[in-house]
UniProtKB/TrEMBL annotation:
TM regions (residue ranges): 9-30, 134-153, 165-191, 221-244, 279-306, 326-352
Keywords attached to this entry: Cell inner membrane, Cell membrane, Membrane, Transmembrane, Transmembrane helix, Transport
Name recorded for this polypeptide: Oligopeptide/dipeptide uptake family ABC transporter, permease protein
Limits of the ABC transmembrane type-1 domain: 130-349
Signal peptide: none
Length: 363
């Protein structure tokens, strides 16, 4: 198993490199770079998209050695020295290939550079936002699994019963509700919107968090994270419950289960001693997708609605502002976390069913 883990860890390097290459290439074709953003702000347009108003200005970038005339939409009226200084400061005076390799070399040294617009190191911004995203991703995934697995097993055992029918109706309704809509509903009902003010409206902790005792800090943290976690969990909870139920139903109908029952084994031992480890494999296989989906995809909207400063919101704001150091820095962190979670998922395979030997299968 050690050799397999080592090979998987070594594969992280080319995989992560491929992710960075693809996204770096795509970004080169996206209009409205950071320099254009600054130009638009200098001219009072708010953002670069104000220059794409159909005024007939050529927004294409031309390869000229003269100042910058025609290089940036809406750049007329600004000194050429100002544009040249911006290009040098942001590193755009270098070819894209050179910029990419310089960036990756700095990443290997854990140097993620400095944000273009926030005047702070990217690594400090990521570390500062990481607790929020980890809290949402980890707690939402754990709660979804802790609820879905027992509920899915019970539904499989009592398939076709009244309990199975009405819980399926609730699950389908939960799956149909978008996470952001459920988040708004929670805010209206329980965060002082129109009814009750039970939970706080924003933030991960209170202003006096550092002055609280350890138990007070735990309670305060749980008080703040309850609504965001509930909003993040609802869709994954529904999917996992039905997946667990169907997986157990498929296993229960197999011959080895009938053989185990014929030998006189108790129903509990048949269910948890034989069926469980086989049925749970497909459920565990979806763990990385659930975690990463909540960690990044769902956290953008949830973080915005609950005013949480997490990586999802940071990445979105950086994409809008074309803050490339933050975009690629957060992408690097998300990609690395996703690949590590995939390896942990394989280890959980072995934990659930020790008969699995990845090294023998690869050999």
């Amino acid at each position: 198993m050690g050799a397999y883990i080592l090979r998987r860890l070594l594969l992280v390097i080319p995989t992560l490199l491929g992710i960075m290459v693809i996204n770096f290439v795509l970004v080169q074709f996206v209009p409205g770079g950071p320099i254009e953003q600054i130009i638009a702000q200098q001219q009072g347009q708010g953002d670069v998209f104000g220059s794409f108003s159909g005024s007939g200005t050529d927004v294409g970038m031309e390869d000229t050695s003269s100042a910058y005339e025609g290089d940036y939409a809406g750049a007329r009226g600004l000194p050429p020295e100002f544009i040249a200084q911006l290009e040098k400061e942001f590193g755009f005076d270098q070819p894209p290939v050179q910029r990419f390799f310089n960036m990756m070399w700095n990443y290997l040294q854990l140097d993620f550079g400095e944000s273009y617009f926030r005047k702070a190191d990217v690594i400090d911004l990521v570390i500062d936002r990481l607790p929020v995203s980890i809290s949402l991703g980890l707690w939402s995934t754990l709660i979804a699994y802790l609820i879905s697995i027992p509920l899915g097993i019970r539904k499989a055992v009592r398939d076709g019963s009244r309990f199975d029918t009405w819980t399926s109706g609730l699950i389908i309704a939960a799956y149909a509700i978008p996470g952001f809509l459920f988040a708004i509903l929670l805010l209206v009902l329980f965060a002082g919107g129109s009814y009750y003010r039970i939970f706080p409206l924003r933030g991960l902790t209170s202003d006096n968090f550092d002055q609280l005792t350890l138990w007070g800090q735990i309670v305060d943290y749980a008080w703040h994270i309850t609504l965001p976690v509930l909003a993040s969990t609802i869709s994954s909870f529904a999917t996992l419950t039905l997946l667990t139920k169907n997986s157990f139903l498929d296993e229960i109908k197999k011959h080895y289960v009938m053989t185990a029952r014929a030998k006189g084994l108790s129903e509990r031992r048949v269910l948890y001693g034989h069926v469980f480890r086989n049925a749970m494999l497909i459920v565990i296989a979806g763990f990385p997708a659930v975690f990463i989906g909540v960690f990044f995809g769902g956290s953008i909207i949830i973080e915005t609605l609950f005013s949480l400063e997490g990586l999802g919101r940071l990445g979105y704001e950086a994409a809008v502002a074309r803050d490339y150091p933050i975009i690629f820095g957060s992408l690097f962190v998300f990609g690395l976390i996703g690949l590590i979670v995939g390896i942990l998922s394989d280890l959980m395979y072995v934990f659930v069913d020790p008969r699995i030997d990845f090294e023998r299968r690869e050999g």
